[in-house]
Amino acid sequence: LPHDLLRGMPLPTCHIPQCPFSALTRPNRTLKPSGLNHRGQANGTAAYPREQIAWQIRLAQNHVQAGAIADGCGVLIENFAGISTVASTRLQTTLADIADELRRHVAVAEVREFFGLWTAR
Question: What is the pTM of this model?
Answer without folding.
Answer: 0.62
